[in-house]
What we know:
Layout: H1 10-16, E1 37-38, H2 66-70, H3 75-91, E2 96-97, H4 121-136, E3 141-147, E4 160-162, H5 165-172, H6 174-179, E5 186-189, E6 193-194, E7 197-198, H7 203-212, E8 218-221, H8 229-235, H9 245-257, H10 262-283, H11 292-306, E9 308-312, E10 324-327, H12 352-359, E11 365-368, H13 375-380, E12 387-393, H14 409-421, E13 425-430, E14 446-449, H15 457-465, E15 479-480, E16 497-499, H16 508-516, H17 520-523, E17 525-527, E18 538-547, E19 551-560, E20 566-575, E21 587-596, E22 601-609, E23 615-617, E24 622-624, E25 629-635, E26 641-648
Helix pairs in contact: 1-9, 3-4, 3-11, 11-15, 12-15
Alpha-D-glucopyranose (GLC) is lined by residues 39, 98, 145, 222-223, 340.
Amino acid sequence: xxxxxKNFTLDEKVRxxxxxxxxxxxxxxxxxxKVKVSDGPVGLxxxxxxxxxxxxxxxxxxxxxxxxxxxxxxxxxxxxxxxxLADECIERDVDLLLAPGINVKRLPQCGRNFEYVSxxxxxxxxxxxxxxxxxxxxHIGTSLKHYCVNNQENSRLSQSSELDERTLxxxxxxxxxxxxxxxxxxxxSSYNAVNGVKVSQHKKxxxxxxxxxxxxxxxxxxxxxxxxxxxxxxxxxxxEMPYKKENYETLLAAVKxxxxxxxELDARCIKVLELCERCESExxxxxxxxxxxxxxxxxxxxxxxxxxxxxNNGILPLADGASVSVIGDGATKNISGGGSSRVELDHNVPxxxxxxxxxxxxxxxxxxxxxGGKISRCITNAYGKDAAIVxxxxxxxxxxxxxxxxxxxxxxxxxxxxxxxxxxTIVVLYHGSVIDMTAWEDKVAAIVSVGYPGEKxxxxxxxxxxxxxxxxxxxxxxYPMTADDCLANRCHRTFCHSVYSDGLLVGYRWYDTAKYMxxxxxxxxxxxxxxxxxxxxxxxxxxAITDNGENISVEFDVTNTSERDGAECAQVYYRVPTSAVxxxxxxxxxxxxxxxxxxxxxxxxxxxxxxxxxxxxTATDKWEIEQGDYEIIVGAxxxxxxxxxxxxx
Length: 649
Ligand code: GLC
């Protein structure tokens, strides 16, 4: 190693354990390489690197949210996004990107769901892993975040997540277990506490990260997440971000008094020095390989594949020449969520009507805004048109959860009134997480979920609405009927405690199990996990399951029974009917998405490592793969089961 710990004084070692300022590690006046870090998961967001909080961020390419990326069900696009962001970092001398965020979506109202992958930990891990590989293959570091059980924004600095060992292992750190296969240079620990102890000073969780999950990089705190720097250092946290003078002083005193031993101090310093050395040496290998235009093309590709067609009575795709009214105020400009992941642009984003005109040249397209004007004026514009597109948005942001998962009354009224005047009303949602649509879903002809689609979102959406692109996105979070249908919302939660008595039953794991237990009324959802419509239709056949020792392969055919080429994501779930332990009804263990030509058949092969079928035994404190019969369930969605088979392990 270039930096020998023996060449550093006690004071220098203490200084190394906290950032120099908001965006840099300590360099001891040039004695050590200064690492520059920057948010965020969907584009560079860093106020001009002045080192202070706040300030206008540098402009950068704005990618679709991680929610939209996950809805592509194409991990290769997570890799591609990582590659593009690495180039953005290289051009701005950033050494390490504070991403990806992969926390499990336990609460539909969580303000940061747009920044995360899914309610399913396996899918979250796969997307996190491929994203990390994409960034780090270009010699830029990542910070896998936020470790762990950080599933709400309300009172995030003080709230303690209370959960049992199996739930911790099989749900809330299983995503990290898979993502860590990509060996991120750092992991970011979260603001919250777990079972009463702040994660930034949680020795058991830090030990678990290193000893059980195999992480050998640096653990940094979330910004301002360290309360007690002495306890943090002793728990195994390596780097406090950003620098806090009082923490430095207490730590220095603690080292001098022997409360923190020299070897504890050195163990943490070595991690920091290793990161500094790694960033310095990797920097020499960096090479920008993409142009800004190619990055924007990649962003558009993600949006085209990640936008989800939730409902369509046949009105979509729009025919050229159709008269179209687009109603909605700034919604179409709402391209990213709020908080540390927000990206600033140095140009205007074309609105949806502007993008539509390019694809429907013979169509009369009008656009009316809500601003100021009475909603009734907007709606009359929809009267008599072949289609009325109502653009609505939901502003989600880091730091706060939504009080309700319904749209505002004003937006619901606009949808309902427009649908009353025009049966061909299409709702386009610019949103960060699932929405309760019970007030209007049955009144409209079509619904398109655009998420926060990034700067090329409207370009992608226009191609989908006009049929130039066949939608292939599928949900990665269940749309419940209402927020209260979510089991987690019926668990005890106060300002400072969230009791995870829903246990393993997060997302579809609950709704499936409720159905299996005969609780039909509780099992009903608006749109299930893994659901999304296409302009094509697909049939599945020829299921064959083989045991290859380390893994099983699940093979089947998918036929496109329409005249239009289309991509189809097939999901593979497993079930253990005679399990010795309690398990959710079924769990995702594989998936594949392929382009299937019109009237063509494609052969799918999904390889499932047997370790993905294991449960965590609190009797042996090990992952166990049960012997016996496993049911393999192949679905176009979690609910739309197409093929089932059995295999004995
Ligand atoms: C924020 C976020 C974290 C971000 C960091 C730096 O509070 O929780 O995701 O990377 O601070 O902005």
